[in-house]
Write a structure and sequence with these properties.
Elements: H1 2-36, H2 39-64, H3 74-114
């Protein structure tokens, strides 16, 4: 039953990662462009964030597979998939907010250096 759990979990994780990554990429560009006012800088930051997001999320999802206990019932299957997927979503939400704060202050600092 673990194989089924791995397949379902990885499918959910991959789907969530791609859909949310695309949304972050599209809307994040507008956020960064509003701060940076330079398209080249905005696009570079945005692409780096997307690659980092994909690597972090998919890497963590793969590592999480190592620590799974044997799954013997459908109830355990559901519980494990929900808890593992929920954990990834919460971690990524926290990281996303820290990234936005870092971008905000980093770009503001960079702009103040250029205006002096």
């Amino acid at each position: 039953m673990n194989t089924l759990a791995y397949i379902v979990y990885l499918w959910f994780t991959f789907t969530i990662t791609v859909l949310v990554g695309r949304r972050f990429y599209k809307n994040g560009r507008l956020f960064i462009l509003n701060l940076a006012k330079e398209e080249a800088l905005t696009d570079s930051i945005n692409k780096l964030l997307l690659v980092g997001y994909y690597l972090l999320n998919l890497g963590y999802a793969a590592l999480i597979l190592k620590g799974w206990e044997p799954i013997e019932t459908k109830a355990q299957l559901t519980e494990v998939i929900i808890s593992k997927t929920g954990r990834i979503i919460l971690i990524l939400a926290v990281i996303h907010y820290f990234n936005m704060i870092a971008i905000y202050f980093g770009v503001r600092k960079q702009l103040s250096i250029h205006h002096k």
